[in-house]
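RECORD TYPE: inverse folding
INPUT: structure tokens
STRUCTURE:
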């Protein structure tokens, strides 16, 4: 677990229990329904390049707890090590042909339904950060760890990797202070538009997605 300063727990126990019940019901149902897609994608990943179909990497969750995030592997095995450079660019040679499609459509993120079912993540919340990034948070930035990280977020619908880290964190903290069922529904609907229509923000405007500074 990342060593953090004290993070206040903002009540909402009833709301949290309801959201957790929804997470379990929806993620378990989605995993069953999407099983044929999971098998197909996994086979495509395995056929194109050697290595596992899934990629796991340490991320920081609520209150600084460390967990392993699940994704479909989109890079060649030697390039997708958790210790390799995580910054990727549009023309990154480490990304496989299948991986480019998975990233452009955000299908590579679907295995995070496993994380939702296990309680590490939820559907809507700040995107999970890397340990070395969380260790450098100040008190304001650390506030994004007051809620479970999400498969999608407000920042993901407002520019994603095209945003500066300062802007992303401002949006995350605003979400923490203003989250509601209506807001979550708006973010979810906007996510489908961004993921499957505009595909905005998959990569930063520069050569590579920026590290947290």
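DESIGNED SEQUENCE:
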């Amino acid at each position: 677990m990342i060593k953090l300063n004290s993070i206040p727990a903002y009540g909402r126990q009833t709301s949290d229990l309801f959201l957790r019940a929804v997470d379990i019901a929806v993620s378990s149902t989605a995993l069953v329904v999407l099983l044929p897609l999971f098998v197909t994608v996994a086979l495509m990943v395995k056929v194109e390049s050697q290595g596992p179909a899934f990629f796991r990497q340490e991320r920081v969750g609520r209150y600084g707890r460390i967990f392993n995030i699940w994704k479909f592997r989109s890079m060649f095995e030697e390039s997708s090590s958790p210790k390799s450079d995580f910054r990727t660019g549009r023309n990154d040679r480490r990304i496989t042909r299948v991986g480019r499609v998975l990233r452009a459509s955000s299908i590579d993120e679907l295995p995070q339904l496993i994380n939702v079912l296990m309680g590490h993540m939820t559907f809507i919340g700040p995107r999970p950060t890397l340990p070395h990034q969380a260790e450098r948070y100040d008190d304001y930035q650390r506030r994004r760890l007051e809620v479970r990280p999400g498969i999608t977020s407000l920042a993901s619908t407002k520019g994603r990797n095209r945003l500066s880290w300062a802007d992303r964190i401002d949006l995350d903290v605003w979400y923490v202070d203003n989250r509601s069922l209506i807001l979550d529904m708006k973010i979810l609907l906007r996510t489908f538009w961004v993921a499957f229509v505009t595909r905005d923000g998959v990569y930063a405007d520069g050569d590579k997605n920026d590290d947290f500074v």
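NOTES: Residues 5 and 138 are 9 Å apart (CA to CA).
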